[in-house]
Specification:
Low-confidence stretches: 619-624, 630-634
Oligomer: single chain
Strand order of the largest sheet: 11-12-10-13-14-9-15
Bound molecules: adenosine-5'-diphosphate, magnesium ion
Number of domains: 4
Number of helices: 22
Radius of gyration: 29 Å
Largest sheet: 7 strands, parallel
CATH topology of the largest domain: Rossmann fold
Number of strands: 21
Strand content: 15-25%
Structural class: alpha/beta
Distance between the termini: 29 Å
Helix content: 25-40%
Amino acid sequence: MTIHPLQTPITQLPGIGPKRADAFGRLGIFTFKDLLFHFPRAHEDRTVFKKIIELAHDETVCIKATVVSSMQTNLIRKNMRISSLRVSDGTGFLELIWFNNRFLDNRFKKGETYIFYGKVRLTPKKQMVTPIFETPGNQKQTGRIVPLYPLTEGLTENIVSDCVQQAFARSGQLKDPLPGALRSAYQLCEINYALTNIHFPTGRKEYEIARRRLAFEEMFTFQVALCSLKKRQASRPGARLTVSPEPFLQSLPFAPTGAQKRVIDEIITDLASGTSMNRLVCGDVGSGKTAVAAAAMYTTVESGYQAAFMAPTEILAIQHYEGLQKMFRSHNIEIELLSGSLTAAQRRRALARIQAGEVQIVVGTHALLSDDVHFNRLGLAITDEQHRFGVNQRRALSEKGDNTHILVMSATPIPRTLAFIIYGDLDVSIIDELPPGRQKIDTFAVGENYRKRIYDFLAKELLAGRQAYIVCPLVEESDVLELESVTEYAQKLQKSFPDTPIGILHGKMKPAEKDAVMSAFKQGDLRILVATSVIEVGVDVPNATFMLIENAERYGLSQLHQLRGRVGRGTEKSYCILLSQSNQETAVNRLQVMKNQSNGFAIAEEDLKQRGPGEFFGTRQHGLPAFKLAGVFSDMELLSKTSQAAKDYVTGKIPLTEEEKSLLQEKINALFNNHVTIS
Ligand code: ADP
Ligand code: MG
């Protein structure tokens, strides 16, 4: 069997030994293909050449110059050795300097000419600082637009760039997964052009053309998969569940809002229709999604089926379990919690009861998906906070029954039009109304000069018996830094609040550790929680009335809204302070929206306006797969175009050859781990 050149392992390339292969492996790169699809995170334009006489302070440019001195070295401090070299191009002289670089000592000879690229400074002397250099005629790093890659230890820009070039040379021409008809309809360039120019563009325009095409391909692939799912769903029979939820709604201690009623109606219609429901309920934090889900469960259970409710964390599962028990107390419905903390014996008993149908509602984490969980007659599978689960997981849960209805819930408000596009495989219901009587969270956007006053205010809240969240300063994405940042912040804070128990929470903690900290906070044993922006979605601590968000200017408004939703859950007045590190007016102004607006959908619109869809979706809060170019895809227009193209494709308007089909399928497989087959 011959393998396709694209599948060639990168270890075939000269210069890639086991160590480098390991480093590449950490980036998920194993084959030529992986290399070609390892897109640069940015480019540096090194095409600008200047004469020495033209150089301006602070600019970064190329010059072509001849060495006119030997290397001088100076030890200016114990650990600081400066090497300097004089060069000239006939228009003037320039001093090149490097720090602590012994390798250069005998590198240059008088009379040799090089291209140098680096940053210029004119004071105190005309200098170029740590330039890179190459011999003219054989340039790889200068005189062109150079890709900058996501790296890991053991790799440099040069190594990656070199390997990518070699992989290109050895891969031959790629077949285009986008059919020609589609490319011409949407004015997309061909794949080989796109790949070449995403790595090594000859200009800005060429790069744009390439990026547009590849971003289109990503979105298109995703949406074809979603449309195929939806098409298949539409024809999937569903258990006919026809009991009215009215008695349940009557038993609630509150009257459902208009929005809740409308969404419940939409769900009940689906459940009774005979085809299976596949619906997303999108509602702001606190909009009452649980009651909506519970109404659906009531109808399911009273129609003789079981319902499963899956939450992303143990603590949320427990919270739901307790809440549902209260809601169903008067209805004689058995609820079981499948939690990681059950003993083996308890678990065995629970599983037996579920299988025998003695339990009607099962609440749990993704532990619900494990192979030994067998339902007697599963009619409804609900996933809460859907962005924490993939398409596969919510399907896996529904596959534990026959003709099971699927309901997913999201607390991430996104503008309605977008919801319909990006959740192509789901019908969408939106709860755009909060229950009456909710207290507005008083929000303030302030600069660093307010810190003292903020801490004083926090002290007052603590004294009054309340609790507080502090969202820690953002750091570069790194396990170590994240941990350090949280720990360090908490230690510093402890000095200001010596007697207050402070807890920390960050993304790199194990789920069990996180749960333990969250429970301690919930029970009031911890009074301040210092956390990264990962604070558990949906966790309910009514006594927490104060939230301070550090570096607030670095978050999107939607994310701030999500974070803010952790407070304002009880009867006491709550406060959210958005602190910008800088006192910059623009940063503070941008955040003023938060002060006046408490509607998540309106904030999402504003966020989208301020940041554009690239950034908006780039935060990956939306259950989308990690698009490589999503951070840069340029406009809304492209998004709706891919949506249209995908529909055209799935409905057969764009015919594909078998080969095109299998190329596309291959892409979808990569995206969904082989779980979605296109029709
Ligand atoms: P979320 O949409 O964030 O999941 P929940 O379902 O947890 O919100 O509801 C938040 C709170 O609002 C709960 O305490 C719930 O009992 C209450 N609630 C839900 N619906 C209403 C309503 N129509 N009127 C008054 N309170 C309600
Ligand atoms: Mg909820």
